Structures are given as structure tokens and as C-alpha cells.
Amino acid sequence: MESTRRHSGPNQRDGYKHASSRTSSPDQPPVAGLPAAPRDNGADSGNENEFAIWFLEFSNLYNLNLRRPNPSFLVEQAGPSSYYNDLSFYSRLKNQYRRGNGDFILSIFAKDAQDIHSKWVRKPNGGSHVTPSPTRLPRASTEPERASLLHRLVEILDFLSPDERPRHSVAEDSALSNGTRRPKRPSPDGDSDQSPTSKRSRGVPNLSRSASALSRLDSGEVRSSTPLPEATSPLSVRSSQQRDTRELAPSLNSGRSSFISAVFSEPEDHGDRSAFPTTQDTEVAVEEASSQQKLRPSPHTVAGSIAPFSRTAHVLEAPLDERNGLRQDAGQFPMESEPLHDSYSEFSLGSRDLDLRQYDHPAIPTEDVSLTKLSGPIAADDTAFKVRLEDVWPAFPEHLQNAPLAVRWEIMRVALHCGTPMEDIHLQYDPILNDQTKLWDRLRRLSAFDGKSFPEKSKPEAWNAAMSDHFRMTDQIVVLTASLSLNAAKVGPLFKLSLQPLRLDLPHRLDRRFGSDRFLELLIPSSNSKDLKALSRGNESAVIRAIQTWLIEGPHFLLGRVWRSFCIKQATPKKIYKDDTLRPETITILQERIYLFAEDGNDFILTEVKPSISPKLQTTTSHTKMKREHLLEWLLQIQQNEKNRKQSVYKLFSRIALGLSRTRPTAVLQPHQIRHRDEDILSPTGKVMNDGIARMSTALARKIRDILGLDDIPAGYQGRFGSAKGFWLRDAEDVSDEIWIETNPSQRKWVCDFIEEDHRTFEVRNASKELKSATLNLQLLPILEDRAINRLGMKEKVGQFMKDSLQSEMESMKEAMQDPAHFKLWVHENAAPQRRQDRVRLGHVPWSCGLPTSREDQMELLLSQGFDPTKLEFLRKIAYDLRKDKCEELQTRLNVKVGRSTYAYMVVDFSGVLAEDEVHLGFSSKFTDEQSGFSETFLHGMDVLVARTPAHYPSDIQRVKAVFKPELGSLKNVIIFPTKGNIPLADKLSGGDYDGDIAWVCWEPGIVNNFTNAPPPDVPDLFGRGVLGKVSDTYEHLSRSCGSKDVTTEFIDRSFRFNMEPSLLGICTNYKEKLCYSRNSVRDQHAIFMSTLISNLVDRAKQGIVFSEQDWDKQRKILNAEQGDAQCAKKGLDPPQPQYKQDNWRGTGPPTHIIDYVKFVAGKPTVERELERLKRYLGQGEHFDKDLVKFFEYYEKYKRPYELRKKEEEAGKFKKSTWETVLDELQKDIHDLAVEWRNSHDSFEVKRENTYDKWRNIRPTSKVNSKTVQSLCEETLVKVGLSQWDLLKASYLFKLYFNKSPSLPWYVAGYQLAYIKAIAVSRARGAPPVLLTPEMYAGVRPDAKFVRAAAALKDGHRLEQPGEDLVGAEGLSDQDE
Fold first, then answer.
1. What confidence score (pLDDT) does residue 1171 get?
2. Phi, psi dihedral angles at 466 (to 5 degrees)
3. CA distance 403 to 1264
4. Three-state DSSP state, 153
């Protein structure tokens, strides 16, 4: 038939008639994956983007690197370009496309490209005697090859339209055919960085998204839905010369495919499948041309080598498929099925091979997840769903790729917060932007951010650390954290990406070894959340699997780097409060924390030698490529040791978390100083009695103490050491100077060779420290009541402790507030312990805008500068709110403080002097309880209670004997358990061990003497009963069963999916609490069943325990029928919430349950009564302080009186003086600031940050030109906020708004107001105020003796201090006598 016969040529007038036919010749098909030209393109002028897509895909597929006019991405001016700048190709192809000749050009070019390609023969290893046969891949990798293809394209276009032949010389044509570059022509837009770009419609999967999609195709990406013809083994061309990494500009999200060097050799060997890069000296032999022609060095980075497999072209799949009426199944794409030539087998896995499988190309079919197989609503538009996933990661502008990572992070963070497309940010990188303040000022001036509120700034210390070479400061590193939240819209990215402010934290081992900038923590909603399940009703599992596949297997292109996930943990649930007036509620969103590793990046360097493991101490700009499998191999050494491969998959995966534990690195031990014990201490019944604990020498403990800066040598440290984790106890019998450490089998989680230094570094999580009185955990109360001899007596005793502790704290606060110095001491003593650590880490008190960050530090500052807490309302309110919050927390958590109790690390008696059920507890200083009068340095001859939370069984609290043993006397602040007996004492306490578990220890007679031990429960076998299942496949079995699939990817895939399943631990724990409350029992069979279930679910992820939602529903139905509430049991409903979960008592009669009693009889009434007393005592403070306005009043004197100004205005003679102009303009600026403060709807932190930035930028008006006014802004004082202008602003702001917006002056100018106050108070006392350096101020602590003596002196008394009478006597000698 005419429609199917072979055509020998086109009709030059009407074009190729059958070009648009879907039944075109099977012998000359269009290139796979490229769209066919429409039948009548010329009729629709709205198809500009459609043609642009066709044009760029055609160019990128063959590496032609053609440009189109005015592309939507900004072309970097610096450095040579690989683009063929003759723009006539665009217009000529466009004309042919509109005439319907698109398919003809694709078809004939494909055939001619094959013919040209047959003459390209690559010489492996540069050997002139080796001439492998040509392959079928018609893709250019060098300038000569590209020139040959372009020359043929010119001939085709000239044939179709001779009248459109471009006007260039024959010499230029000849140069083109010979592979030389035509002189570069200027771009129509002048390559301006400020050229306008169209705003994209965010996330709409259609051709209107060209600004985003085309910009990435402009940069050379090949659509992932467009497979490379035939076998593909791209190689990157590498320059042997050293290059400045700052010149590595192209984005990984917009890399150029022009620098992908294809493997032009027919694969023969079936061994190594890796493809590896050539060098600058790699030769390409072209038949009928010179065989000595060399490849020119590539001026670009690895971006080009990654681009063909970049995800960005995904955004076009849906519209292109719709346009062509195609439904391409991933499994139909031609794949690389043949092995590479054996000339590459000598290279390691670390080489820069970029075959499809390296980045899990979407065209590769997966075994169990394929979106084209989804049924239901999502299957109706499966490509669009893929688009929404791929659109989560925004492309980053190429012109900003040479900016430091911190600058790139901050720019994208601001853009995402403001909802501004990245392509709308016309900002050229300049080193001056490394200053965070100047960067933000520049961003605020961009038109793209007009009228938009900025997010909270990264802390200055975090920013400064991020700008360092190693992304760290002192002992802390910068952490990159991002979050994904579900996009409520039906179009656009499936998740909304949010980058969090840079923050400092302790490093983990992988941070220290490879650089913290290579790790990204990503918070994502649990895959089993209601919102995600609602994406596709009736098809939830398929959608969730698709999301998991995208997250686990695919590379993620962000900020010019290639990221891959390698670990997952459960994150703290996110709570969102919905302030609905009809029904306010708090929504809890379960989250997962995904850890990603940067395998490659634009700012990575190319090296001649490419080890699989990156070298240590690489800077942020000198990283080398490294795969995630090598990261895991470095940590777990799976391939190095058979025992590691024999571990279960899920247990081995859980060990990755040890490499992510945030610790303090201390001493590095040498191999001969490490003692690996072959056996643990076993009981007669075979139980391990020292599970998780070992010893270290006294010399090593001392050395670690010195590194950490501790005062004394602690009894031990909780830490990590190679593959071992747990607690290391100082050997009490070791008095030598020898440094050594031991590890026990129960500590070692995998076989580690301890060769590399990072595996021999002792990492400290915590050290034992001085013990203090503790609170009684809520979970322990029901067990105390159950095991009480007198249940009512136990309730009353615990309730009395609640009352006494509340009243005591309130009284001490009221007493302290009578004197600022005394109150400052009280604030210091009641502050969180973390405060000192933050000060030591930063070297100063943490600040946020105009005041310190914490409320305690705010109070200390204001008190230090002379403010009275009973007079200044701002300070009074901070004090009251702080105490109120603590009372409400106590009332909610019901943590009752018991004076004679503490929390201490559990350790074992290695010397064997303790008998079964004996414990030893000594204190480093006198342990004092003021209420009871207890004050001792050790416990001896008394019974104590020991417990560990969470506690479930009645036997989880044990009554034992405390004895003092001289042999153990040097080990203080830890509770020592015996190694004698059949069962470890720690195991009796909720199945604990000694790897860092903490015990609650109580020696309060009113509680201990009213308690009896419970026998161990009869625990049901939930596995034998079929309630629980277990998967115990080993890594070795996995590697054998996964076949050709990468074992690391399969290992991570299985582990991720298992860990993403709901653990149900929280659900079961909450249910057990309700069930036990309903049945008023913690020891019946149902309570024991739930306790056993919960104990197993704690280790679900590590042990591979299977317990699904369906399994839980089955058990819950049985338990619901046995609950105490008859109505709920009859209806099959869950037990109701306990009364103590409510704010007020709603039960009938007085509370009987111990927790109800403590909350509603003891706690709540006491809290309300004491807070009311405190409120009355404090009274109503003053917002105004006369000392703070005096500074402004001094300058106000230079203004004419109001009456005089009014008269002059009425007479038309008024003219403002310099100072009147300055102060009037300042008043306007302050007014605008206050309006913005009041009208802002941002979170408080963002509102404060934005207002503070604007406050700092208020400068004297430019309407006057006075040197006197300019002198107010002396540069050095402006930098620290203490110039005359800063003080004038602060004083005027306070005068104007101390009552209208009372908190505004303090949050933006609190420091200046405190300085003004200090001057006023000091002047009244006849002594000058003293300024301290930040470090000295951070180290200042109140002197308790001075405070008490000064208070006594005020009362007319003289407080004698110990030792005062001996002053002078100490200097007496025999000669003096």
C-alpha cells in the first residue's frame, strides 16, 4: 500500500506526506522514544514549546549540543562552551517540523548516523594495533564525531529547503566536515545573567512547564523515557590537568550531555559490567581520517557524565505520551544486555562509570514495582505520578553552581520558603555572598522576593562553620536537614521540599570520616500515614511501593549533587495544632528520618586514581566520587568477613545506626592496646552476666577525661569503639599507666578489622556524672501501687511528694525574687544542664536577635544590668511563664520528685565481691536531700528499689540490698550490679542490659518499706502461638538470591521497606495503658500478654519481627471483649482513655487509681494554688522604665517645642532643622517597623528574625548631609550594636512603643536597652559598668556565698564566712612567734 511503502525521498513542495502517519514504514522507524511530529504543526502557533522539546531531545540524543534562542536557563559566560552556536539549526528544523517533516528527518538521520558511526572505531587503551569492530551506537562523544553528524544534518536540511541554506563560506562548511569548530557567535540575549525567564506553573504536568523542563533539556539532559539506541556504555572524558573546582559550573540537574564519551566498541566479554572513563590521551580512530587525532580535554565537570540519566526530563513524559498517544511500558525499552569489553576489567568499582544501572534508570524494569502496572485512579495517569515524584527536587541554576554549598543551600531554602521558582532568581555568585548578612540583603533586593517573608536565618555560628573547609567548628559539625510534606494540590510535586536552617551538632563516625556535607537527613511522612494512603483509594499499597522505590533506588539530584539513601530511622512525630474555633485539635504525623549520601557532585573533583573509598580529610570542594555500597562496606566490612555476611539482613542493617550515633571522638588506640575477649561472663544457666559492658584502664579513662575537659575521672563512659557499643567501666584494680581497652563478644556487633584509625577511636556518648535527686516516672506508679503492702498508703505517700516538691520550688522562687542578685543565682541553679554545654561549644551565650536565646539567659542578662524582676513587666512575665510552663509540664507528665532517689548507669561487679541481689552505690560528693535531711556519700545496709523504664511487668521493679564494698569504693556515681546468680539483675528490669541502660534507684523508706517483689511472670510464647512471625534471611542468602541485581541495592531496598512498615509499638503501648486502667490490673493474663508483645516489638526492626496491622486487629478484638468497660466490650470498642489523660476529673466519686489520685487530688490543686499565690506576689509590673528614655530625651532637646513648631507652621515660616529631620524620619521608620511587627502572620521566630533585620538596616536619613549625624554611626561600634545611633534608636523605640507593642523593643533592641540601664544604675551607685568579652560572660556564674552575705548585709546583719577568722593566721611561722 502507498502508506506503507518505502519512500526514497521527500516532496520538496509538500514535504514528506507520511511523516506524521502512525503507520510509517517499519523499516525506517523514528528514533525510539522521540515524539513524532504533528500532522499540522503550522496551524497552531502555540506549539513553540512542543517543538523546542522535540528539538532539544533530538540534539541531546545524538550529543549534537545545539542551542535554541533565548533558552530559559542562564548560560555561564566563563569558560568554553560545548554548544554549537549556529542558531540557524533551530529555525530551519522548526520550519521543517511545522511542514510535517519531523519524522522524515528523524528517520533519515538515524540511518545516516548509523552509517557515519560505522566509521568510528575507538582504540581501547590507545593501542594502535587494536581495532575492535564498530558498534551500533550512533552517538557523538568527540568534536570530530559531532561535526560529522552536524554536517549530515546540514545536507538533509539543504535538500529539504535549499532556499534556507545559511550564509557561511565553503571554508566554514569544510571546517565543519573536518571536525573543527566554527567561531562562536554571540547569543541573541547576550548571555546575560539577568535575562528574563518565564515563571513556571509549579508542578503542572503539561507543556506549559517549559521554563523548568526546557531549561534542563537546554543543558543537555536526555529524557529518561528516551533510551539510548542499542547498547550504551557512556564514558566521561577527563582532563589530566589540575583544575580549580570553583570552575566546575554545570549543574547535575542541568548537566551537559556533550561530555559523555560513548564506548564505541562491541561488548564481548561477559565478566565486568562496569564502564570506565578514558583519559585525555584516549584515541579515536576514524576510518578515512587521521588515526592520530586526540580527544580535546573537557572543560566541564562530571555534570555532563551524569546528565543523560538525570531525572529532569521526567517532567515531559506525561505530555509527550499524551501528544503521541503512546503508552510505553518500562519493560519494553531496549536495555544494555551485553557485557563491556574486557579492556575495562582492570578498573575498580570506584571509577567514574555511568551506565544506566549505576543510577537505576527508570527504564530498567523492577521486579515488584512498576507504575505502569498500577490499577485504579493512579494507573490512569501513571506517568504523571512519576512526574510528580521527580519534580520534588528543584533544579538549581547553573550560574550559581560555583557558589559554596552553604550559599547554595541558603538560596534554595529561601526560594522554597517563599514559593519562588529557582529560575526566577537572577543572582550572580560573588564571594561577597559568603557573608550571610550580605547574602540575605542581596536576596531581599531581588524582585523575585518582593513582598515575601523570609524564613528563619541559620545561626551565625552554624553559617561560619559551614563556610569552613571541613564544614565544622571545633568539636561540632554542620548538619544538613530537609523535610518533605505532602502536597495537598492534585498537581505539582507530590511532596513539598523544605530545607531547614543549618545547625550544629556532634558528629557521627561517618561525618568525621567522609565530611558532614556529604550527608543529608531527610524527614518524610511515614509511608503508612493516612494522607499518603489517600493518594489512591483502593490502590494504596502500589502507590506506597512506588514512593518507596523512588526514595530508595533512584538517585536524587539536589543542589548540584547526586544523593542516595542508605539508612532509615523512626523520627520524632510531628505535631500540628489546628486552631479551629469549633474543634481545635492536635494532629500527630508519624515521620521517618532518611539518611542520604552524596555520591557525586559538580563541586567534586576528578582524579587520575579513583579508589573505591574516598580519602580522608577531603574539603567541601575536593570530594571524590564514592558509591553508597562502598560507604556501607567501609563501615560494616560485609565483604571482608564471612561472619558479617552470615548475619540476618535486618540485624546487619540496624548496625548502620552505630555509624550515625552522634558522639565525641576522644583517644585513638593502637592495635596492641586493644584486648578482644573471646568469652563473656556466663551464669550457671548460660546467661550473659556482662551484656554490653567491658573495662578500660585508668590511664585511658584519665586521657579521655582530659580530652573532654571533665573535672574528675568518671567511673566509666558510654560509647562506641569500632564495631563495639556499650559501657566501658574503669578498672578499679588498675593502678598502672598502661593504656588499654577491652571488648567483649556481647559488645561487638560485627567483625571489624580495627585497622583504620576511625575504627580505633573511642567515641563518647556520655560519661557518668554527679548524681541528683530524681523524679518518679509515670509508668512506675501502677507497679508501685500493685506491689504495695498498703495501697492507700503508697498513693498518699507519692501524692505528698508531689505537693511538697511543688510548694518548695514556689517558695524558693518567691524568696529569690526579692533581690536581683539572689534571683540570678536561683535562675542559674534551676537552668537546664545543657546550657553550660551550649556555652562551651559556642564560646559565648547563644543569641537570637536582640536578646539571648533561652529565657533563663534573657533573665540573667536583664538581672545583670540592673532590672528588678518585681518591677519590670517584661522580666516579671518571663519569670512567671517559665515557672508556669514547668508546673504544667510536671502536671502533664506527673514526674513526682522523690528526694532520696536518683538515676544512675547500671554496671557490673567484675571483681565478684557482690552477692546475688546486692548492689553498690557511692557518690562523688555528699548526696543531700533538704526535705528529709539525708546527706551521705554512699548507701549501706539498707533496702533500695531499682527499676528501668519503660516498665511493664510487675517484676520490673526489684527490691534489693545496698551494701558498701571497699573494693568498689573508687567507682562512684554508678550503681554496680552483681555478676553472681542465674539471671542478670538488669535482665529482670524490663529486659535491660549494661550497654548504657540507666536505673532508677530509690531509698525513700516510705516507698521501699511498703513494697514487695513480684515473681517473674509466666511469659506466653507469642511466636509459638502464631501471634508474631520472624524473618531471619542472612545477607549471604540475599546475595545468592538477588542474581544480577546489585546486592547493596537489594539489601537497602528490603531493609527500607521493612523498616517503613508500621512498628505498632506506640499503638500497642497506648492500648495496654488503656486496657490496664480499664481492668485496674497490671498483672492479669491480658496485661502480661500486652507486656510481652510490647517487649518484642521494641526490637522489631533489628530482629525482623513480623506483626502487621491485620495481626493487631485480630488480637485487639479478643482483648476488647475482655476489658473492664462493659459497654465498650459489648460494642467491641477499644477501652476508653484513662481519666488522667483529661484536664479535669470527670469520674464518679473520688479518684482511686494512683495516677488519678496524684494528678487530681495532689498535683492539680497544688499547682493552681501555688501559681495563683505567685501571681499575687509578683503583682503587675511596669512596662515603662524612665532610665531607658533618657538617652532619647537628650537628643529630643534639639527639637523646637511643639507649640513653637505649630505656630511657625501656621505662619508658613517653619523649616525643619537637621535634628528635627533626623528624628522625624527615624520616627517614621520605627512606625513602619511596628506596623509590620503587628501585622506579621509568620511564626514567632521568623517574625522576630525579619523584624530584627529591618531594624538593623534603619540608618540616619539621607535627607540631611551632616557630619555630626554621620559621626553617630562610628563603624567599630556599629558592628557590635553600641554606636550612638544604635542607642538612640533603641531608646526612641522604647519611648514610642513600650505600651503599644511592649515586647517589640526587647526582642530587637534588648541588648542596647540593657546597656542603657546598666549605665544608669552604675551612675547611681558611683561605679562604672563593666563590659565582658563573650567568652568571659559565658563563663560567669553567681557566687552563692557573696549573694547570701550581701542579702544578710541588706537586712542589717553580717554573715560570717567559714575561714574568715583565719585570714592572716595562715601566714604565721615559727619566726613570727
1. 83
2. -70, -25
3. 39
4. helix
